[in-house]
Design brief:
By secondary structure, the chain is α+β, with helices and mostly antiparallel strands. The protein has two domains: 4-219, Endonuclease III, domain 1 (Orthogonal Bundle); 230-353, Nucleoside Triphosphate Pyrophosphohydrolase, CATH 3.90.79.10. Helix content is 43%, strand content 14%. The protein contains 15 helices and eight strands. The longest helix is centred in the N-terminal third of the chain and has 16 residues, at 84-99. It is elongated, with a radius of gyration of 24 Å. The termini are far apart.
């Protein structure tokens, strides 16, 4: 890829003068860098900042994270989504304590060998925390590179991603390697933006960019069309008994594995079908209604699945016989129990309808 060797100096100068002041950039501690990179996966910077600050205050060290209770971890993570990220953070912390005496490993291969860490995260930690000539290539970086070079390869192709990674690593400067990694990320995030027109007038690489010169910026990157999401119909129940709400644990597999959930049934059930299902669980129903003045349909989108949820608020006369159900107060739900966003949306309907 021609021109890449020319980007280093102007990009570093621009980054050092213009980079955003973000909490994970306050120092280069590998633990802090690693946590931030995991949180930032598929999540906006603005959304991550308060979560990151709370997380680091509660778990300031790898050792503290390794011994935390899952419920507290999930509660701190509540709202960020993709809870497997939180599980992997704790798992990696435990491995680091067991294999590396609680010290984050410095070598790229050792970082890459940690569970749940891929080439991007290993590259980010290696370069930012340890000044290694290792690239961290994500969608932002691929967008910058393909526009610069007018490259029409499919950025979803792993071979192409590996090629870009290898070529970038040949141009890393002798000093400021962490800054160079972050400068590529930053340019893609705030100038060569993913949605809408890129802000070419403020780009330090404008004179080097093939797409800018030819006016073809929006033709890049080339990305293979994603498969359509699978739609699943769900009936989700807000079961109330006195001042408590029923929850149950999801299975330890599949989406939201092991998380708390509101009771739900596959399919879109009507009022009579819901009552029949609850009766089999030993629950006596005194009142059932759709939430929010009859509005009972909600949608929640995961990466590959879309839930269409039919929602019912049910007032019960007893706690029933289903041993999977636990009954918790609103205070417990707010302060102790992490409820995934899909179910939190439904739970909030109870207050709107009260």
């Amino acid at each position: 890829m021609e021109k890449l060797e020319e980007i280093v100096a102007p990009l570093l100068d621009w980054y050092r003068a213009n980079n955003r002041r973000l909490p994970w950039r306050e120092n280069r501690d590998p633990y802090r860098v690693w946590v931030s990179e995991i949180m930032l996966q598929q999540t906006r910077v603005e959304a991550v900042i308060p979560y990151y600050e709370r997380f680091m205050e509660r778990f300031p060290t790898i050792a503290a994270l390794a011994v935390c209770e899952d419920e507290e971890l999930f509660k701190l993570w509540e709202g960020l989504g993709y809870y497997s990220r939180a599980r992997n953070l704790k798992k990696v912390a435990q491995v680091i304590c067991e294999r590396h005496q609680g010290q984050f490993p410095e070598e790229y291969e050792e970082i890459l060998a940690l569970p749940g860490i891929g080439a991007y995260t290993a590259g980010a930690v290696s370069s930012i925390a340890f000044e290694k000539a290792k690239a961290a290539v994500d969608g932002n970086v691929l967008r910058v590179v393909t526009r610069l070079t007018q490259d029409s390869h499919d950025i979803m192709d792993a071979k192409f991603r590996n090629q870009v990674t290898a070529e970038l690593e040949t141009i890393y400067p002798a000093e400021g390697r962490g800054d160079f990694t972050q400068s590529l990320m930053e340019l893609g995030a705030v100038v060569c933006v993913p949605n809408g027109e890129p802000k070419c007038e403020g780009c330090p690489l404008r004179r080097l960019c093939g797409a800018c010169s030819s006016g073809t910026q929006l033709q890049y990157p080339i990305k293979k069309k994603k498969a359509e999401r699978r739609i699943e119909q769900k009936t989700v129940l807000i079961l109330k008994y006195q001042d408590k709400t029923a929850l149950r644990k999801r299975e330890n597999k599949g989406i939201l594995s092991g998380m708390w959930e509101l009771p739900n049934i596959d399919g879109s059930l009507n009022e009579q079908q819901v009552v029949q299902w609850l009766t089999k669980k030993g629950l006596n129903v005194s009142k059932i209604k759709p939430p929010v003045s009859g509005k009972k349909q909600l949608k929640h989108i995961f990466t590959h699945i879309e839930w269409h949820m039919t929602c019912w608020i049910v007032t019960c006369e007893n706690e029933g016989s289903d041993q999977e159900l636990i009954w918790v107060t609103d205070a417990q739900l707010e302060s102790e129990i992490a409820l995934p966003t899909a179910f939190r949306k439904v739970y909030q309907l109870f207050f709107y309808s009260s």
